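Working notes for the structural subgroup meeting. M.R. asked for a predicted model of this chain before we commit to crystallization trials. I am recording the input and output together here so anyone reviewing the notebook later can reproduce the run.

Input as submitted:
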Amino acid sequence: MNDSKLMTRAADNIRILAASMVEKANSGHPGGAMGGADFVNVLFSEFLTYDPENPRWEGRDRFFLDPGHMSPMLYSVLALSGKFTLDELKTFRQWGSPCPGHPEVDVMRGIENTSGPLGQGHCFAVGAAIAAKFLAARFGNEVMGQTIYAYISDGGVQEEISQGAGRIAGKLGLDNLIMFYDSNEIQLSTACNAVTCEDVAEKYKSWNWNVIKINGNDPDEIRAALTAAKAEKERPTIIIGSTVMGKGALKADGSSYEHNCATHGAPLGDGAYVNTIKHLGGDPENPFVVFPEVQELYARRREELKEIVAAKYAAKAAWAKEHPELAAKLELFFSGKAPKVDWDGIKQKAGAATRAASATVLGALAEQVENMICASADLSNSDKTDGFLKKTHAFDKGDFSGAFFQAGVAELTMACCCIGMALHGGVIPACGTFFVFSDYMKPAIRMAALMEMPVKFIWTHDAFRVGEDGPTHEPVEQEAQIRLMEKLQNHHGRNSMLVLRPADAEETTQAWRLAMENTCTPTGLIFSRQNIENLPQGNDYSLTAKGAYVVAGSDENPDVTLVASGSEVSTLVAGAGLLRNDGVKVRIVSAPSEGLFRTQSKEYQDSVIPADGKIFGLTAGLPVNLQGLVGAHGKVWGLNSFGFSAPYKVLDEKLGFTAQNVYEQVKQML
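Returned structure, recorded in token form:
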């Protein structure tokens, strides 16, 4: 057992490193990192189970940091664990540094998640805990018995997403989830009591959480709380640790700098920094040091981990010998490879709504992809994720043998849980809601793109054709917002997101195929509420993979090229019939993904949409949706206002989404 004096010395070492990183960078947040040092020290030196030699070991515990501004704390404890060098800590917040201002997912370095806007990080942990339960139901606790740890701050508790995360974790009885709440009662600009008077403990108790209240700076109390949390077998646990913001900090005059908002988001500053480092037992002239006794503490932990991990590997080997098929399946699940699906065997109903066509695909995926989890924000019978649900059943406390996640009315929470599942690994998550509600999900979509997590976002009711529900439920600007992600590149030079809006039922199958084969980035699938006529017979749907392709009228020198995605393509087909009656040579292009199209060769792009030809685009959203394809000299018919409440066929007439208007607009252009 490590004595309290040594544990405090190690925590002080973390405080010194954290404060020094911020001071050297002249940027960052020292106070929270200093207050939380005691907890992460106990966690990493005594409880967190991982393989120092194999960071990607699927059976490891995971630690999800919610308040990313407390990154100096995480980098410091990871330096003690051998994942960062002291020289790397000195480069905090600088160009090319492995220590950015907010941690970015790097499993090899021990960083399980990118810490984005407050609240998302601990919700990722809830998703990871669900994934762990799902896998344990299939492979057993002896192989997948990991604990998911989360760290949250006052700000994260206040963010609305915490309600969804707390409700879901309690309802599902995620006893493999342990969260430390760093309750220092100080925020960036105010004390917490200036903005809230809620009883956090009672709130979490009402959600069926095991609540433990401690002094969050006392290593003995932290150890006892973690031990009790590990023993809990019915509920998730929140350890509410009362901590001191800027613990150990002194001002330039030697007075206390603790419990002060000023330490939250700025360097301590000359005199205060020097006094603080001295007070904590460090050397202000040479602060980037690991004390010998702390080095020995973490060296002992590494030796302990070798024994712990060796025993777990031995147990897994014995299990694999007894269950070779399961062992092969486990390896396949964590390989990250696209699953094998009989795409040719999926039979679609002609003229179906693409949401219904999606349901057909989801039914096949539920039967053929054993590690897929599908979710819905209380809309499964409308977003048609019930195509998946009908082949399985929803998760419930004590039963994770199914594969459907009922998230309730909480789009952001659902999206973050699915991202957490992807971060955990071993599962393929998808989640559905109405496209207009993607607005609630935007912060999570952005984080999925940033972390390159291959979550499948299913969005239905894609246009004003939602009809009678009116403008509150009719997405007009949403597609333009999501399409921007196709134009943004990630750190690997890939489009940060794949966005697909298929033109009919058959193209829907191909869109899902592309989504399932996309293992590098998130995918957005945008589906119609209403039925859509199939594209002309003989269409080569495999060309969907090109992002845009000719679906009809492939004249070598067309008078005009008509471009659209989704249900508008069938409107172009109808309009083209009228134009041909006038002797106009027409080419029709379905463009489900401009981002994918722009990755094709210039020769292919020009062969589909002639750069020097007349081009007309039709979109049920903002004209900018097609501007990149149509070009400055073409013409786009779209919406420049919110929709209206009326039957969708009436809206088609009133808003000009008819064959006749296509005919008239093109004739004017020509």
